[in-house]
Amino acid sequence: MNSQKRYMNFAHAPDVLERETSDNGFSKGWGMHFPTSESYWLDCHTHYGRQYTSEANYDMHYMLEEWFSRLRAYRLGGIITIIKDYSMINVCKHFSALYQHFHWLLWMPCDQPDHGIMQQAIESGVSGLKLHNNAIFNGEADPDVWLSNKWAKVFAVMEQAELPVLWHMTQRVSASPYHGGLPGRLSPCSNDKALASALKIIRRYPRIPFVGAHPRYLGPERLAKLFKTYNNLYIDTSIGFALRWADELHNRDKIILRAFFIKYADRIIFGSDSALAGKLDDYLAQGFLCHPRFILRLNLPDNVLQKIAHCNAEALFKITPLPVDRRGNFRP
């Protein structure tokens, strides 16, 4: 059977096909089952679970050691952590200079736009801005709050720096017991209205990449329509694209989702919505691992997998790629 035909329906590591001919085919068939594998994961969506304290330097160091001492074995290469407390800016500046695997976003509430603080964060090495529509869904703010002159100054700073915005735009209403999500509640603001307001901003600032968290609680068909209309629109993989520890994808779902991920490989960024909060136990570790598990079950082509795992995030958030190394004779 022709080698190309043998492998055309399955995504194997690129070197599997290379061994068919290299060294006169001496190692043909060795490792023939190796699937594609990520060089490493760069998680664009994690949360720092504590507020600023006098021991913030120690706390951050402890949590980074907790995460990477364990999850490096699962090829976690870097994290982008969301910081709510402006007092943490200098701490994050210190750690992003110290650790090549640590990066951060600044969370700015909808009622507190401050372009001066955003500029300070940019000068301190921030990788982007985090926005959340929670106040809008609680009826505490109008969905067009982001269209104010004060927010225009913030977005102008972001546009000048060419940095992205990670945005929780919409909200799930149904229960989602699969991932532990309780039923939502009907909001004074509908999801359609919240999304329409967000799209006004996305149209107004075409040079800013906008990354929708939890893929905006939309299915593949509606996401595809938005991708076609807005070139600066992206999604992360958090919560919506995850598999629990013992699960597999149904064949029908795998076909649909695999085609979606391949077609929009340039618009999808790995993220888990994990919380860095004290000791990393099995519960928190699995909250992260269910996201790589989902993506690897899709058996994506190598170039697609690398884009989603880390390359897209590195390009958008202006992060230097990491060297790929190993500690033992087999890199898990």
- What's the helix-strand series? HHEHEHEHEHHEHEHEHEEHH
Query: What is the mean predicted local confidence, pLDDT?
Result: 93
| First-to-last CA distance | 32 Å
Q: If helices are DSSP runs of H or I spanning 4 or more residues, what is the number of helices?
A: 12
Radius of gyration: 21 Å
Structural class: alpha/beta
Order of adjacent strands in the largest pleated sheet: 8-7-6-5-4-3-2-1-9
Low-confidence stretches: none
Structure notes:
This protein has 332 residues and is an alpha/beta fold. 39% of the residues lie in helices and 13% in strands. The protein has twelve helices and nine strands. The protein has helices at 3-7, 14-18, 56-71, 89-98, 115-123, 134-137, 149-161, 191-204, 220-229, 251-263, 282-297, 302-317, and strands spanning 41-48, 76-83, 102-107, 128-132, 165-168, 210-212, 233-236, 268-269, 274-276. α5 (115-123) links the parallel β3 (102-107) and β4 (128-132). α5 packs parallel to α7 (149-161). The model has no long low-confidence stretch (mean pLDDT 93).
